[in-house]
């Protein structure tokens, strides 16, 4: 099932999610409204809330709370983007100026805090302690992932496992929560809940691996940010780790220096080393392995158009070019 068919299947639910997002973004503080609507309206794939609504439907849920949970997931994700862009000093996201570039770091951090706190207000309204437990743990794990990534920056000795630990915490954890919560709402069995959590985690890792490959293997226009942003920030992502592990002594020395120094001064040489070592193909293959694990996890739930849509989301995540 392709992404357009998936979006069509969930269209009514996602319209309700978008409407709720706009409603709950409202504040009597004008800057919160302005900045919040700017970042939410900036597009994005909305994959995390899509996973929540489709996951709940796949397990037979027909109540109202999946819409609220999907909006909560999107608010948490948006808060992390606002904070990420400040930490990374990013100037572009989704082809537009970042909120911090327009309003400054202080406003971006504080509106991110507002989105976090609003999401917790909305969690309380659901009145389900299991939901609170999963989301509270997820937000804490994401923060740990951010700190771990900060520790890895400018460190060319970062291993693939250390890199993947950051990915699992920083990116995949929210995908995991998004999928698991659908099963919780639907009253799925412990096995089904565990399977959906595994699906989300593997999907999230695959998604981030593709993102990191696109940072070096796509055009800036396609990905909506500057090519080599990760290199500029000194982030040792998997394409660079692969070069360090398999490259010639001169390629290894080049990439080590690039990670230690940051910046894009030698981006063309780094791209050439990435190409020569097959680093993009290696990263894509690792993403495909995670994707296969995500799809395998779905065997624990009954077949339906919604289960097929969950598998289709995985295929989209690893085949996308943006």
UniProtKB/TrEMBL annotation:
<keyword id="KW-0479">Metal-binding</keyword>
<dbReference type="GO" id="GO:0046872">
    <property type="term" value="F:metal ion binding"/>
</dbReference>
<dbReference type="InterPro" id="IPR033749">
    <property type="entry name" value="Polyprenyl_synt_CS"/>
</dbReference>
<keyword id="KW-0460">Magnesium</keyword>
<comment type="similarity">
    <text>Belongs to the FPP/GGPP synthase family.</text>
</comment>
<dbReference type="GO" id="GO:0106350">
    <property type="term" value="F:all-trans-octaprenyl-diphosphate synthase activity"/>
</dbReference>
<keyword id="KW-0808">Transferase</keyword>
<dbReference type="InterPro" id="IPR008949">
    <property type="entry name" value="Isoprenoid_synthase_dom_sf"/>
</dbReference>
<dbReference type="InterPro" id="IPR000092">
    <property type="entry name" value="Polyprenyl_synt"/>
</dbReference>
<dbReference type="GO" id="GO:0008299">
    <property type="term" value="P:isoprenoid biosynthetic process"/>
</dbReference>
<comment type="function">
    <text>Supplies octaprenyl diphosphate, the precursor for the side chain of the isoprenoid quinones ubiquinone and menaquinone.</text>
</comment>
<protein>
    <recommendedName>
        <fullName>Octaprenyl diphosphate synthase</fullName>
        <ecNumber>2.5.1.90</ecNumber>
    </recommendedName>
</protein>
<dbReference type="Pfam" id="PF00348">
    <property type="entry name" value="polyprenyl_synt"/>
</dbReference>
């Amino acid at each position: 099932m392709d992404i357009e068919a998936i979006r069509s299947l969930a269209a009514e639910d996602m319209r309700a999610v978008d409407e709720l997002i706009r409603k709950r973004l409202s504040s009597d503080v004008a800057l919160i409204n302005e900045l919040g609507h700017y970042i939410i309206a900036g597009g994005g794939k909305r994959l995390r809330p899509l996973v929540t609504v489709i996951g709940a439907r796949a397990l037979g849920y027909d109540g109202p709370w999946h819409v609220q949970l999907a909006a909560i997931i999107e608010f948490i994700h948006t808060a992390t983007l606002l904070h990420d862009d400040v930490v990374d000093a990013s100037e572009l996201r989704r082809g537009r100026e970042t909120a911090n570039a327009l309003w400054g770091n202080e406003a971006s951090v504080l509106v991110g805090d507002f989105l976090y706190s609003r999401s917790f207000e909305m969690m309380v309204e659901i009145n389900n302690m299991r939901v609170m437990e999963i989301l509270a743990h997820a937000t804490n794990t994401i923060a740990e992932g951010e700190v771990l990534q900060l520790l890895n920056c400018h460190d060319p000795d970062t291993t693939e496992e250390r890199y993947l630990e950051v990915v699992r915490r920083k990116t995949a954890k929210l995908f995991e929560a998004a999928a698991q919560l659908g099963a919780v709402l639907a009253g799925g069995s412990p096995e089904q809940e565990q399977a959906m959590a595994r699906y989300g985690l593997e999907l999230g890792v695959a998604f981030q691996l593709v993102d990191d490959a696109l940072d070096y293997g796509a055009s800036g226009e396609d990905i909506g940010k500057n090519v080599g942003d990760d290199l500029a920030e000194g982030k040792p992502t998997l394409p660079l780790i692969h070069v360090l592990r398999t490259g010639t002594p001169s390629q290894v020395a080049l990439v080590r220096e690039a990670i230690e120094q940051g910046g894009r001064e030698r981006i063309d040489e780094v791209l050439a080393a990435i190409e020569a070592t097959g680093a993009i193909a290696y990263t894509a293959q690792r993403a495909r392995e995670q994707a296969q694990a995500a799809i395998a996890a779905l065997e624990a739930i009954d077949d339906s158009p919604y289960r097929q849509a969950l598998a289709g989301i995985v295929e989209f995540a690893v085949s996308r070019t943006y």
